[in-house]
Amino acid sequence: MHSPESQIASETSSQEQSGHIAEEEIVSKETELEYKVAELTAGLAASSDKYLRLSAEFDNFRKRTLKEKMDLMKNASESVIVSFLPVIDDVERAIKAIETSDNLETIKEGINLIYNKFKDFTKQNGVVEMEANGLELNTDHHEAITKIPAPSEDLKGKIVEVVQKGYMLNDKVIRYAKVVIGE
Question: Fewer CB near the last or first residue (10 Å), C or N of the chain?
């Protein structure tokens, strides 16, 4: 048997050993936590850098596409204007011909040629004249400016006269037809 003194010494030695083990575990856990914190900090820095780069890249993309869009809008009408220049040339020649010519038929013929050329130009660029005479009023295409007594029974509630033609550009109304309705 052990004496009480030896038993106390044994317990004290056991406590010292378990305290030492607990201290090593705490140091080990602290080291592990420091490693994890360093790992998470590095991951956060990498994610932050990736976010900043992506944000900058998107901002550059946005600015570039905005600039391209502005350039496109600025120069989009160039081809239309270039196609329109021959019509202007023809009008200028017609004005000179009117000043020097006495032949009214030749002048009328020249103006009709210019008009037809201009109509072809508008068709080539997607502009279409809207039909209106004799049709029901469609507020998506027509603007009624007045009503008059219908010349016949079948024209009541329909368009009897077009005051100003309406036009569409690629299925979009660019000018409403101003019409007179029969009642």
Answer: N
